[in-house]
Design a protein that fits this description.
The complex is a heterodimer.
Chain A: H1 9-17, H2 41-50, E1 56-65, E2 73-81, E3 87-93, E4 97-102, E5 105-110, E6 116-119, H3 124-138, H4 141-147, E7 148-154, E8 159-166, H5 169-172, E9 175-183, E10 186-194, E11 199-204, H6 217-225
Antiparallel strand pairs in A: 1-2, 1-11, 2-3, 3-4, 4-5, 5-6, 7-8, 8-9, 9-10, 10-11
Chain B: H1 2-5, E1 8-9, H2 22-33, E2 39-45, H3 49-64, E3 69-73, H4 90-93, H5 96-99, H6 104-118, H7 123-127, H8 137-145, E4 152-154, E5 157-159, E6 165-171, H9 178-194, E7 202-206, H10 208-242, H11 245-269, E8 273-274, H12 275-284, H13 290-297, H14 305-332, H15 336-358, H16 360-363, H17 375-386, H18 393-407, H19 425-438, E9 445-451, H20 454-474, E10 479-481, H21 490-499, H22 503-513, H23 525-535, H24 542-545, H25 549-557, E11 558-561, E12 564-572, H26 577-582, E13 591-595, H27 596-630, H28 633-657, H29 663-684, H30 690-715, H31 720-743
Parallel strand pairs in B: 1-8
Antiparallel strand pairs in B: 2-6, 2-7, 3-6, 4-5, 9-12, 9-13, 10-12, 11-12
The chains are: A alpha+beta, B alpha+beta.
Chain lengths: 228, 750
């Protein structure tokens, strides 16, 4: 019962972290479908065109800007959508780590440490991310619309941006907006803006390799919204 | 005056014997007031998970500030469980400093892990905590204090495998106080129904407090309708027997005056009268109804009521005296509730007898129906007189008794108090299921630590902790919580405090640790502040901890007794009892495992032995009294022998049916004996007058029927205690009646 063993510590730690409802971000995933205004057909077509057959894999590079830190945290690896609600996030740099989301459970495996499990229900923010990724990778506009208010800028033929604002008030208290930038039928960037000012930017696909050594919010914004 | 001074209590422990051994004392305290007894398990079902979670949170919010509940938890970790004022204490409460100084290496390692956590999905949950607590002591404490086996969490609250939202509520009221528990239960139900969306959901409670509420309601309900039917039947019977409304009303006089006198005596002698005493007392007063019946039946035409009573009086007096001796056995038992019963009954019987003798005859109407003239009675008496009464009847009955007792299977004595519970099986199963799901502590075992002081107890439990951990690792139990889990001793706190670095050193170490890490330099100012505060805090003692919910939990585990302190460790999921007992092996008696079931059984056995001894003395006194009153041993034999044989016959028959004899059966046997004594006394008397004999028979038949009415109804109750009493007395009355007749001296052969 005494937490003296270092190896067991992170597992219990994670379990605890994710049981803290410090931010009561609730997933409205299980609730009945919300009645929403229909999407304009162009947006729907755009989202549908993004869909790929499972398993869909994409490289990613993520930069996180946080108030606590004086420089962004950068990780890179591969995202895979394995069909249904199964997502795998494999990080290669700087530390190997794999997170698999399947059947409402998250399994995190870090190099040299034991795997930790926790229920997706304990991490509503992950649920939101899961929803958005899965919806994008499968081209499911309806599902995306259930969770977010969608605004589109730009045309499907060229550079476009989808701004997703969470519908659920509790989620909206922490996540201000998720922006997805793309060109043509491919999404290139996902930017998650949190209410307290923190920003996470994921560069997807071919753009992942172009993550600068010292990323800044501006340089990444330019990268995302530029033409390939 | 009486109503002003009468104070009815509902503490069931006054009906339990005074504990003698330390274990028994602890048992009584724990069962009544211990942490386990105050725990109510709540489950909400019947809606979607999200709705149930919402209701669960709503209930917590509603009850949190209610003074009746010391703790309401539903799985959502409440940082408020650690009072914000106590937050800086985390460095003294957490075991980290025991093994690990806050130096650059440790801090560097922790901060690197935090960086990794920040780039993982858990980032957002960690962000706010980090500046103040980079080593996450709060979470280590939360993990330490969380139940070892907690239910799964969905939507942020506890859920059982059967999709019910679960909550634990700790009441301020003790478990053995049905009145206060009723208030607590009502409060929870009110709060629940006030929540929006609670209409279609179902709230279910469980736990010792709730059970006592249910039992109380059931008992009251049954006592009510049984009382009503008995009263109606009794009235009908008397009207049928005497065909006179006036007689009926007047016969109520002695009983009413007896009841009043009894209550008055109780208020004078005892500070609080137990509700059960009053209920049982009125049943016992059923014996008193015999006196007016005897008087009414013995009236004859032309005779002054006063004269007939005078003639009857010596026998009545003997009967009253004998009954009082029997009930005096209750007084000798030393149990408060039974003593109250004894005082109530004895005073009541004396007053009833006296009012029958001195009050009733003057009030009875002159015109009277002589019951001796009733035709059916003549036939009945003839029948009774013609019954063969061979001398070998007693031997035959004795033989039957021995045979039945010999062949009866199962244990003789019922030692298990749990068998007396009237709760439906479904409720007990539900409770067991919730208890297992919530990891709530076992109600059977307690690990008891004793030391001269509070701090001594905490130090002892710290010393014991490694052995306990080893046991748990081997699977001897699911969890064992010792008091030091919630609060380390002052010595340990000071040791940890001494290890906290001073501000300058900490700043230096932190700066060294932050080298190469992406944290801003000023981020950890709150952390430095907290450590500095912790260095100067006075150690936390149980008193100043008590205001928080965790402090309450600790307070329940530390008990002061006879000048020394006891620490109570709760156990759940016990699998290897002997291993737990072995924990106390080398401690010199300071550590022991208390088996509450064994302690309660020893309590029951002591209780029973005490009552049996008292009964033996009462029996001797009875023999002497009757012999003296009747001035002939042979006559005394005709009175005492049927009574003794009938009593043992009831015992034998109940054993043959398979009933285990409990304390309540003994109480009921005494009651039946009191009634039977009257029958035997009156049947034994031979006045030589046939009409008089008929009157005796009439009176006895009315008495028997009224007794059977009251106690026969009780035998149908669903509550085992009432059933035991009803069955025993009904059988007793029937057997006493038959044997008194069969063993009475023959009318002609005197």
């Amino acid at each position: 019962m005494i937490s003296g063993n270092k190896n067991r510590h992170p597992k219990r730690l994670a379990r605890l972290l994710l049981s803290l409802p410090l931010l009561w971000v609730g997933a409205s995933h299980c609730e009945a479908a919300v009645q929403v205004a229909p999407l304009p057909p162009a947006t729907q077509a755009l989202i549908a065109a993004l869909g790929q057959a499972a398993p869909a894999r994409t490289a990613f590079a993520e930069a996180r800007f946080m108030r606590l830190l004086d420089r962004p945290l950068v990780v890179s690896g591969e995202l895979a959508w394995l069909g249904g609600d199964q997502l795998q996030r494999r990080v290669a740099q700087p530390r190997a780590e794999t997170a698999t989301i399947a059947n409402g459970e998250v399994t995190q495996q870090r190099e040299g440490k034991r795997a930790r499990h926790f229920s997706l229900a304990r991490a509503p923010q992950l649920q939101v991310l899961l929803d958005s990724f899965v919806a994008l990778l499968s081209g499911d506009a309806g599902r995306l619309q259930q969770a977010f208010v969608i605004e589109r800028q730009g045309e499907a033929a060229g550079a476009w941006t989808l701004d997703l604002t969470p519908r659920d008030a509790r989620v909206a208290r922490t996540i201000a907006r998720i922006s997805i930038d793309g060109y043509g039928g491919q999404s290139r960037c996902m930017r998650m803006q949190e209410v307290d000012g923190d920003l996470a930017v994921d560069l997807l696909g071919p753009l992942a390799a172009k993550m600068p050594a010292q990323p800044t919010r501006e340089s990444l914004a330019a990268l995302c919204q530029g033409t390939p | 005056m009486v109503s002003q001074r009468l104070h009815v209590s509902s503490d069931l422990r006054s009906f339990m014997p005074a504990p003698t051994t330390p274990d028994q004392r602890l048992l009584m305290e724990q069962v009544g007031e211990g942490p386990g007894s105050r725990l109510l398990l709540v489950s909400i079902s019947g809606a979607t998970d999200a709705q149930l979670a919402g209701l669960s949170q709503g209930l917590v919010a509603a009850l949190k500030h209610d003074a009746h509940y010391s703790q309401v938890i539903n799985g959502s970790f409440d940082l408020g469980a650690l009072d914000p004022k106590l937050l800086p204490y985390r460095y003294l409460l957490s075991p980290t400093l025991d093994t690990q100084p806050l130096d650059a290496d440790y801090l560097a390692d922790e901060l690197q892990q935090r960086v990794d956590d920040l780039s993982s999905p858990a980032a957002s949950l960690l962000k706010d905590l980090l500046p103040r607590d980079p080593t996450l002591e709060v979470l280590k404490l939360a993990r330490q204090w969380a139940p070892a086996k907690s239910p799964q969490i969905r939507e942020g609250v506890w859920f059982s495998p059967k999709d019910e939202a679960l909550l634990l509520v700790q009441t301020v009221a003790a478990g053995f106080d049905p009145g206060a528990q009723q208030q607590a239960v009502d409060g929870i139900e009110r709060a629940f129904h006030a929540l929006p969306g609670s209409a279609q959901a179902r709230l279910q409670l469980s736990g010792p407090g709730y059970f006592s509420v249910v039992m109380g309601a059931q008992t009251r309900h049954q006592a009510d309708w049984i009382g009503r039917i008995s009263t109606v039947g009794f009235i009908a019977l008397l009207l049928l027997a005497y065909r006179s409304v006036a007689s009926l009303l007047l016969s109520a006089l002695p009983i009413a005056s007896a009841a009043l006198a009894g209550i008055a005596a109780l208020t004078l002698v005892f500070p609080a009268v137990h509700g059960i005493t009053l209920a049982f007392g009125f049943t016992l007063l059923g014996v008193a109804q015999e006196y007016p019946i005897r008087v009414l039946s013995h009236r004859r035409a032309g005779e002054d009521a006063v004269a007939s009573v005078r003639a009857l009086w010596p026998l009545l007096l003997t009967a009253i005296a004998s009954a009082c001796i029997a009930y005096a056995a209750f007084y000798a038992s030393g149990v408060t509730g039974l003593q109250q019963l004894a005082v109530f009954t004895i005073v009541g019987l004396l007053v009833a007898g006296l009012s029958t003798r001195y009050l009733l005859p003057y009030l009875l109407p002159r015109r009277v129906r002589d019951v001796a003239d009733m035709p059916w009675l003549k036939r009945a008496r003839d029948l009774v007189d013609r019954l063969p009464r061979p001398r070998w009847i007693p031997l035959l009955v004795a033989a039957v008794i021995v045979a039945l007792l010999w062949t009866a299977r199962g244990p003789f004595w019922q030692n298990n108090l749990a068998a007396l519970t009237p709760l439906p099986q479904a409720m007990l199963v539900h409770d067991a299921r919730l208890r297992a799901a919530l990891g709530a502590p076992d109600v059977r075992y307690l690990l008891v630590l004793s030391a001269p002081s509070e701090q001594g107890v905490l130090a002892l439990s710290e010393k014991l902790q490694p052995a306990v951990d080893a046991l748990l690792a081997k699977g001897a139990a699911d969890a064992l919580e010792l008091p030091a889990r919630y609060l380390p001793s002052v010595a340990v706190q000071r040791a940890r405090q001494a290890r906290l670095p001073d501000p300058a050193t900490l700043r230096r170490e932190l700066d060294a640790a932050l080298q190469g890490l992406p944290f801003r330099s000023d981020v950890f100012a709150p952390f430095l502040h907290d450590v500095e505060t912790a260095r100067h805090l006075p150690p936390l003692t149980p008193e100043n901890y008590a205001s928080s919910p965790l402090g309450q939990r600790l307070a329940a585990m530390l008990v002061k007794r006879d000048g020394h302190w006891l620490g109570l460790g709760t156990v759940s999921g016990v699998r290897d009892v002997s291993a737990l007992q072995a924990l106390g092996a080398g401690s010199g008696g300071h550590v022991r495992l208390l088996d509450m079931k064994a302690a309660s059984e020893s309590l029951v056995v002591d209780y029973r032995n005490r009552i049996l001894h008292a009964l033996l003395l009462a029996a001797l006194a009875l023999v002497l009294t009757i012999s003296f009153a009747l001035r002939s041993v042979r006559r005394a034999w005709h009175v005492l022998a049927p009574m003794t044989l009938a009593t043992f016959l009831v015992l034998a028959v109940e054993r043959a049916i398979g009933i285990e004899i409990s304390l309540f059966h003994l109480v009921a046997l005494i009651l039946a004996g009191g009634l039977g004594l009257h029958y035997a006394l009156f049947f034994e008397r031979d006045t030589g007058d046939a009409a008089e004999q008929r009157r005796v028979l009439h009176a006895t038949i009315v008495c028997v029927l009224s007794a059977l009415l009251v106690f026969g109804m009780l035998a149908w109750a669903s509550i085992p205690v009432l059933r035991a009493i009803g069955l025993t007395v009904s059988l007793g009355v029937a057997f006493h009646f038959c044997l008194s007749i069969l063993m009475a001296p023959h009318a002609r052969q005197d």
